[in-house]
Specification:
- This protein has a domain of 191 residues.
- 44% of the residues lie in helices and 8% in strands.
- It has eight helices and four strands; from the N terminus they run αααβββαβαααα.
- The chain is elongated and about 85 Å long.
- It starts with a helix and ends in a 6-residue tail after the last helix.
């Protein structure tokens, strides 16, 4: 009995794929060759997935909730952080834990007026635990240490006052802090974070200008006061930085209330567990 042609072709394709797998497993490849093979495999996977959906009469659901999905973990940890009470940055005392945090500005400085006294953080970050830490005590005081470092830096500079800053902090199970920080940055695009590429530099550590050739950070240009930064050359003028900050606040969303943030989280979760690409 003659087999149906589509079944025969499926068997032949499966055999060809197995031959291809044996070949690439048994040959030494240069890095460029390996990259090309990996790209080819990725394209084959995509093509087979599209074909699978086309011939399967039963459709997939619009979404599939997987609590282990890193993007969703980032959403939930970030949401837990936003649910914490805000407290003055200047009042922090030592506590155990590593995790994520957010810093908020409530002062009168014109450059930060669009986000002052809102729920949009000026900076978000993470504190990684020591290697192998499993309990909150084994995580040591990493989260406090990061916040305390920022507190000291703000105290040293002009144009801003420590009393105008609040923060939220959340100790989390080791390993989840990176996904949460990534989500917080993508949601808020805080103006002090490096990822905005505008007013970064609060986390920069000092050394003599002769030991490295990089310019003074925009943060140190706008907020002078850290002695070690004086000798570094100015990479961009304060006027240019102010203009870029103003443009940033015009193009990025500003969350004025907790309710605004919850709405964004709900929409983000819808996208994160969607089975088809946006």
């Amino acid at each position: 009995m003659t087999r149906r042609p589509e079944l025969q072709k499926a068997d032949e394709t499966a055999a060809t794929l197995e031959q291809f797998a044996e070949l690439v497993r048994g040959v030494e490849m240069t890095p460029p060759s390996r990259r090309k093979v990996l790209i080819a495999i990725s394209e084959m996977k995509d093509s087979l997935s599209v074909l699978e959906r086309k011939i399967d009469p039963i459709r997939l659901p619009d979404a599939f909730f997987d609590p282990s999905e890193p993007r969703l973990i980032g959403h939930f940890v970030a949401l837990a952080l936003i649910s914490q009470e805000r407290f003055p940055l200047g009042s922090i005392t030592s506590f155990y834990g590593s995790g994520v945090y957010a810093i908020y500005y409530n002062g009168p400085s014109d450059i930060y007026a669009p986000i002052s006294k809102t729920e949009t953080p000026i900076y978000v970050g993470k504190a990684d635990p020591p290697t192998g830490a499993k309990t909150i005590i084994e995580q040591e005081t990493k989260l406090f240490g990061r916040l305390n470092e920022h507190r000291k830096n703000i105290e040293k500079v002009s144009g801003i006052e420590l009393q105008d800053f609040e923060c939220r902090a959340l100790a989390v199970q080791s390993g989840y802090q990176t996904a949460a920080e990534n989500h917080l940055i993508r949601l808020f695009w805080p103006i002090w974070n490096n990822e905005t590429k505008i007013l970064f530099g609060i986390g920069k550590h000092g050394d003599a200008a002769t030991t490295r050739a990089n310019n003074r950070s925009p943060w140190d240009t706008v907020h002078p006061g850290r002695a070690w930064a004086f000798e570094n050359s100015e990479g961009k003028s304060a006027e240019d930085i102010h203009a870029e900050v103003a443009a940033h606040f015009q193009t990025k969303p500003i969350f004025r209330t907790i309710e605004d943030i919850f709405g964004a989280f709900v929409e983000g979760i819808r996208r994160a567990d969607r089975l088809t690409a946006d």
